[in-house]
Amino acid sequence: MKKITYRSVFNRKNKLNAHGTALVQVEAYLEGKKVYFSSHIYLRPEQWDSKRQIIKSHPHADILNRMLREFIIKLESKELELWKNGYEVSLNRLKEEFKTKAGTSFLQFVKMQIGNSQQRASTKRNHMSTYRWLTRFRAGVNFKEIDARYIHDFEQYLYSNGFQTNTVAKHMKHLKSFVNAAIDRDYINANDYAFRRYRIKTKDSKHSFLLLEEVNKLEELVLEGKKKKLTHSLEAFLFCCYTGLRYSDFRNMSEKNIVRINGKPWIVYTSVKTGVEVKLPISLLFEGKAWKMLQKHKHNLAAFFAIKPNSNVNKELIRIGKIAKIDKHFSFHSARHTNATLLIYKGANITTVQKLLGHRNISTTQIYSEVMESTLVKDLKKCEKR
Fold first, then answer.
1. Pairwise CA distance, residues 12 & 311, whole Å
2. For residue 305, what are the contacts with CB-CB under 8 A and spacing of at least 6?
3. Distance between CA atoms of 55 and 212, rounded to whole angstroms?
4. Which residues of the chain are under the pLDDT cut of 50?
5. How far apart are alpha carbons 10 and 328 in whole angstroms?
6. Does the structural domain 212-385 have CATH classification 3.40.50.740?
7. DSSP one-letter code for 104
8. Would you tell me how many other CB atoms lie within 10 Å of the CB of residue 287?
9. Are residues 290 and 239 in contact, defined by beta-carbon separation less than 8 angstroms?
10. How confident is the model over 292-341, as pLDDT tens digits?
């Protein structure tokens, strides 16, 4: 029996796509003939070591190289299986057999797409969340099953698990991107596009924030007895009201992020979500309350920033809101909305607020100005009637 030899090749057609990347393929060679199998891994030229035929200088190089090795092992296993079953091994038979086998797993393709993506770590985590829900919904689904019925049933499955409209929309957008990628890789025929008549439904997000008097209620709140264990979540929430930090950025804080510029304390950090560097003059924001809080915890800042999981904190904030008699639902992210809205209310320039929040686009910040016009006045009138 003549054995097929395999090797990894990059950019065989010597042409980069619109993203500046090219495909890694596995070449199968037998008796002077070659066929190629797609690994679904796309790289920039500098990320491929042509001599060693491995991926280099890639943030996920180890994982992708392991995926390549496993892919070749699968090809070798399929070749051995054909031989054991008495078939004459040829490149065409191998390709047809492997294509049939590989084409049954849409979710395997999705997982490879996410792993090979050049997107931010936070985006990958969001996509992996959708992948896990797809797996729970229907594991082992093949490409031919990705039709309008599958799309509809997955949407209903998400609603049945208690998700709200915009969360369902997020997962459906991710699924749509996976299907589009499968079409680009010729796993799904474009004529069978499952999203052709489907429209992703969204609702305008309500930016929940606290009024100044409600923030004052939290500042004056005294938690005693069994309620004292809520103190950490309360202080972390207030700190983010003063600074506008996201939950992920608060958890990522350390002593090195607190610096002095011209003798004044500043927080300097790079946003986990956007990668934008943000500088906060904490002695000037909200009468320096954030700086005072850091001084209070200066002997153990690590413990202060080591907050509980977001879902746990949000549950505690519900309890805190009830104790403080705040008739409004708010979450940890409401602290960021509160920071922005109150800064605008106090007269801060919109571009200043943009820099303090680390927004790339001022249109994102402009939302808070619109909230001021449509919501804050109404809420303030309610306060006057009390």
1. 48
2. 250, 251, 252, 253, 254
3. 54
4. 100-104, 374
5. 56
6. no
7. T
8. 10
9. yes
10. 999 999 999 999 999 998 888 999 999 999 999 999 889 999 999 899 88
Q: Tokens for 342?
A: 């109150």
**Residue 267, strand partner residues:** 258, 280
- pLDDT for 286 equals 93
In angstroms, the CA 78 to CA 4 distance is 11
DSSP-derived secondary structure letter, 140: T
Question: Given this model, what pLDDT does residue 63 score?
Answer: 86
By CB atoms closer than 10 A (0-12, 13-18, 19+), residue 373 is exposed
Contact indicator for 271, 278 with CB cutoff of 8 Å: yes
How many other CB atoms sit within 10 Å of the CB of residue 242? 23
Q: Is residue 26 helix, strand or coil?
A: strand
Sequence-distant (≥ 6) Cβ neighbours of residue 178 within 8 angstroms = 106, 109, 110, 113, 130
How many residues are given for the chain? 386
CA dist 285 → 239, 289, 343, 362 (Å): 11, 7, 9, 20
Residue 350 and residue 365 in contact, taking contact as beta carbons nearer than 8 Å: yes
Report yes or no: 246 and 271 within 8 Å, Cβ to Cβ.
Answer: yes
Q: Which burial class, exposed, middle or buried, applies to 236 when counting CB atoms under 10 A from its CB (0-12, 13-18, 19+)?
A: buried
Q: DSSP character for 263? A: T
Closest residue by Cα to residue 102 from 22, 24, 185: 185
The structure tokens 């049933």 sit at 153
Which among 69, 1, 12 has a CA at the least distance from the CA of 43?
Answer: 12
The CATH 1.10.443.10 portion of the chain extends over 212-385
**Facing residues of 35 across strands?**
28
